[in-house]
């Protein structure tokens, strides 16, 4: 087998913090803060600070510090990029990642003239960026920052990162074959934040590393961690410090069935994004073992036993969350079982992807299913998710961004529900009720018990699983209609390599977890009541 070509990378400022974890990240703040307890306030509320607070913080912002900040954060990155561009052009997949900051977004550049220049993408040039920086330095030297409308606390840092973002767009336009982006890694515990950050250096480094390894990616963009952020300045009524405070408020989340597979990876990815996550598992021993595998994220993950089929266990979880956090922001209903016993793993992909096309002999050779397994499947996959949601709804209502993500399957789409009566009930969105879902599931179980699945037109390959996921999708629509201030969606994560698929899937758990995580972190006003096939809205 031919080996992939060796790739080479340069990381600046990499002796500590994010830089050593990434192993373009050299950077300094451009000021001195004597009181470390006030660092978060200085970073997040810089435009709202009174002169008294600034004095109490002992903030020193001199011309010399500002000059050094611009020289390192902007001109240093520019100088390094220019020196290495000839070598980058020899690469088959050249990448430049400029580690920036959310403070470098145009909404934080309070000088309107500077904002106008840096926001004019069509006419941006390096000379115009120089013009802005020279004017800033001139005004700080003459003591007229506040009068000229420049940021008064983190001026040099903000302007240096805004210049960096502008330069990213210029170079991306100039070198279309190079993938060049800037990224805010988040509020990270480093020397530059006096270790007051929320994310670890490992978590902060993840975003630049991901962008450095992107394939066929867009260029000239600004990423806020893993998400592409708006390049243009937002409305002037949006206050920068309020934006940052919103982004970094602590969210609290529950993931059911999270001791392994997709559930565990959802926990990992959310915790890496600064979300406090309650990892749950029916088996306490396995849950605690899973918790140990996330020891690097111990500040963001805790465990609580949960059997979604047991009302007392669900009530215990609700009491725990109420006493621990007082509210809940995100619920991911991931707990699930297949409802069958696999006899031949080699036949599993055919059973999942082409189940109803297989002969009875092929199906019987691949799996066995019983009434008891079907009952258990409905109790966990549908009633368990419903029971957990209902128990936690009052806590979710206390959040200003409540989210419920129901991990479903493409097998729960209506095209897989062969019984025409059941399909008609689920399809009638305007008249859907929980009682009608119960009616369908009870009819299915009765026909299963009496051996009438095939004669009544029910799915025969993975019967209970299909019905449980179709019911979950229907419940998603009912709940979204009932709670319009919530964002509630169901999602098929794809055919993932997990124990449930006997590791026959096409995608990794990391790739599979990405879709539920994305839905869990959707901004307010996002679509609700939909079924997603991975990242795309699909048909029920």
Task: Give a verbal description of the structure.
- The chain is an alpha/beta fold and 540 residues long.
- The chain folds into two domains: 17-247, NAD(P)-binding Rossmann-like Domain (Rossmann fold); 252-538, NAD(P)-binding Rossmann-like Domain (Rossmann fold), CATH 3.40.50.720.
- The chain is 44% helix and 10% strand.
- The chain contains 19 helices and 14 strands.
- The chain has helices at 17-22, 39-44, 51-57, 63-88, 112-119, 126-141, 155-174, 201-212, 240-247, 261-272, 284-292, 311-324, 348-354, 360-366, 371-396, 420-427, 434-449, 463-482, 509-520; strands at 95-99, 179-184, 222-224, 227-228, 252-255, 276-281, 301-305, 330-333, 341-342, 367-368, 403-407, 487-492, 531-533, 536-538.
- An eight-stranded mixed beta sheet has the order 7-6-5-8-11-12-13-14, sandwiched between helices. A four-stranded mixed beta sheet has the order 1-2-3-4, sandwiched between helices. The protein has a two-stranded antiparallel ribbon with strand order 9-10.
- A hairpin with a 2-residue loop joins β13 (531-533) and β14 (536-538).
- α17 (434-449) packs antiparallel against α18 (463-482).
- The two termini are 43 Å apart.
């Amino acid at each position: 087998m031919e080996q992939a070509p060796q790739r080479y990378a340069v990381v600046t400022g990499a002796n500590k913090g994010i830089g050593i974890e990434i192993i373009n990240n050299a950077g300094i703040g451009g000021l001195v803060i004597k009181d470390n307890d006030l660092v978060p306030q200085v970073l997040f509320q810089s435009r709202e600070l009174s002169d008294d607070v600034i004095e109490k913080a002992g903030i020193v912002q001199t011309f010399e510090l500002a000059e050094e900040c611009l020289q390192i954060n902007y001109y240093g990155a520019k100088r390094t990029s220019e020196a290495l561009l000839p070598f980058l052009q020899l690469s088959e997949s050249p990448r430049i990642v400029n580690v920036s900051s959310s403070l470098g977004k145009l909404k934080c550049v309070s000088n309107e003239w500077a904002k106008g220049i840096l926001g004019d993408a069509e006419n941006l040039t390096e000379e115009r960026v120089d013009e802005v920086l020279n004017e800033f330095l001139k005004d700080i030297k003459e003591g007229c920052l506040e009068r000229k409308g420049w940021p008064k606390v983190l001026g040099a840092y903000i302007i240096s990162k805004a210049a960096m973002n502008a330069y990213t767009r210029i170079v991306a336009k100039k070198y279309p074959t190079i993938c060049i982006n800037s990224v805010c890694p988040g509020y990270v515990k480093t020397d530059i934040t006096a270790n007051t950050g929320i994310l670890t250096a490992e978590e902060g480094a993840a975003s630049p590393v991901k962008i450095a390894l992107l394939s066929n990616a867009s260029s000239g963009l600004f990423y806020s961690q893993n998400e592409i952020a708006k390049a243009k300045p937002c409305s002037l009524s949006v206050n920068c410090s309020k934006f940052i405070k919103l982004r970094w408020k602590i969210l609290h989340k529950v993931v059911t069935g999270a001791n392994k597979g997709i559930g565990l990876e959802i926990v990992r990815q959310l915790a890496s994004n600064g979300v406090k996550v309650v990892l749950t598992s029916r088996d306490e021993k396995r849950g605690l073992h899973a918790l140990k595998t996330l020891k690097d994220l111990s500040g963001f993950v805790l465990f609580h036993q949960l059997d979604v089929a047991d009302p007392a266990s669900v009530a215990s979880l609700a009491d725990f969350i109420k006493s621990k956090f007082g509210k809940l922001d995100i619920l991911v209903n991931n707990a699930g079982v297949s409802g069958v016993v696999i006899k031949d793993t080699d036949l599993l992909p055919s059973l999942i992807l082409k189940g109803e096309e297989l002969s009875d002999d092929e199906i019987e050779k691949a799996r066995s299913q019983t009434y008891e397994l079907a009952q258990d499947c409905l109790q966990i996959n549908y009633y368990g998710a419903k029971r957990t949601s209902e128990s936690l709804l009052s806590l979710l209502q206390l959040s200003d961004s409540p989210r419920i993500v129901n991990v479903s399957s493409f097998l729960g789409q209506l095209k897989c529900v062969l019984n025409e009566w059941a399909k008609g009930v689920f399809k009638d969105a305007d008249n859907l009720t929980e009682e009608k879902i119960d009616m369908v599931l009870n009819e299915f179980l009765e026909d299963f018990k009496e051996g009438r699945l095939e004669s009544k037109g029910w799915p025969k390959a993975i019967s209970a699983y299909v019905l449980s996921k179709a019911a979950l999708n229907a419940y998603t629509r009912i709940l979204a209609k009932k709670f319009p201030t919530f964002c509630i969606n169901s999602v098929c994560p794809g055919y993932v390599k997990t124990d449930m698929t006997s590791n026959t899937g096409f995608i990794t758990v990391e790739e599979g977890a990405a879709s539920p995580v994305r839905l869990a972190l959707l901004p307010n006003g996002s679509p609700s009541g939909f079924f997603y096939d991975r990242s795309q809205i699909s048909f029920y």
